[in-house]
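Researcher: I'd like a candidate sequence for this fold, 327 residues long. If you have to choose between options at a position, lean toward the conservative one.
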């Protein structure tokens, strides 16, 4: 019933929702590495993954919850009558491709008008909350919702000092890498200035401690910090960062297994322990591997601060059939 109301109300008010969404957006504020396509972290992590969802997502979640309830009810059928086992067929039929695409398009518009992101702590996240609550209000009083407010901690890059990366050839020639073309900063990257780091190549996919033997070898030598060069694939970015850090690396670069750059996040668990981390194109990864053979060095500078910010989830409830006390 929630889905049906959302579907019909969204269809009838799609043009006005779009315009009101724009108004709201202008006034308010991943990550497994196995995929070879460009990723967004979270949306898409991210920087920090947005925990809000569109009405369609809420509907899908509702369907999943109903399915779970059906399973539990069925296991205790000896004490419950069959009339209390929900039929999810009608709910599933209300989740249509057209409705999903409509909400996805609207949420992408929110990101486009909010600096390209809907990540936690950003204007895009706040605008996403407004989008969802506007659609939930169409279902009142049958449905009620509330904000779940809480505080999160994360690493926030300094917008006045963009991250930099450069390489130094054995002869002393310095070549600057271009952010957005050669590299991107991972969401939740650590901060610091890593100057003249030796390149250490991580074997296999960098998902096991033994893959970081070269990092430990270089870190054990005198002569400056170590930059771990890790291929993308199989395990989470944060796992690669932690393994590189624990092996002695001062910074880490994860290069793509396909053409182009990708966005990623290290997650917000214990962000103060993270080291500077960047994603690299496959071409840049190959160039850094060649630089190791030549005896060159890498420098990375990431400025920012550890901050706390208030954010919120949305929790919606609908009364159960025939029982005002159930939801």
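Model: Candidate sequence:
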């Amino acid at each position: 019933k929630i889905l049906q109301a959302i579907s019909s109300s969204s269809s009838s008010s799609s043009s006005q929702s779009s315009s009101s969404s724009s108004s709201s957006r202008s006034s308010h504020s991943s990550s497994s590495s196995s995929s070879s396509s460009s990723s967004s972290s979270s949306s898409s992590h991210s920087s920090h993954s947005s925990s809000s969802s569109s009405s369609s997502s809420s509907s899908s979640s509702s369907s999943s919850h109903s399915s779970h309830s059906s399973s539990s009810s069925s296991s205790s059928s000896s004490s419950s009558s069959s009339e209390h086992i929900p039929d999810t067929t009608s709910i599933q039929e209300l989740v249509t491709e057209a409705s999903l695409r409509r909400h996805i398009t609207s949420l992408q518009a929110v990101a486009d008008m909010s600096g390209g992101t809907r990540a936690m702590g950003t204007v895009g996240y706040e605008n996403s909350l407004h989008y969802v609550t506007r659609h939930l209000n169409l279902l009142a009083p049958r449905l009620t919702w509330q904000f779940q407010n809480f505080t999160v901690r994360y690493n926030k890059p300094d917008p006045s000092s963009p991250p930099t990366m450069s390489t130094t050839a054995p002869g002393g020639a310095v070549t600057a890498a271009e952010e957005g073309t050669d590299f991107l900063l991972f969401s939740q990257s650590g901060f610091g200035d890593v100057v003249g780091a030796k390149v250490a190549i991580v074997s296999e996919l960098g998902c096991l401690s033994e893959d970081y033997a070269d990092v430990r070898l270089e870190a054990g030598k005198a002569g400056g910090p170590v930059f771990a060069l890790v291929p993308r694939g199989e395990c989470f970015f944060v796992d690669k960062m932690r393994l590189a850090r624990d092996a002695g690396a001062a910074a880490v670069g994860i290069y793509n297994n396909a053409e182009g750059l990708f966005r990623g996040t290290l997650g917000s668990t214990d962000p103060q322990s993270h080291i500077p981390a960047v994603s690299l194109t496959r071409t840049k990864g190959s160039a850094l591997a060649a630089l190791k053979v030549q005896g060159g060095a890498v420098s990375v500078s990431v400025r920012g601060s550890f901050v706390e910010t208030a954010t919120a989830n949305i929790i919606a409830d609908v009364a159960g059939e025939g029982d005002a006390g159930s939801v």
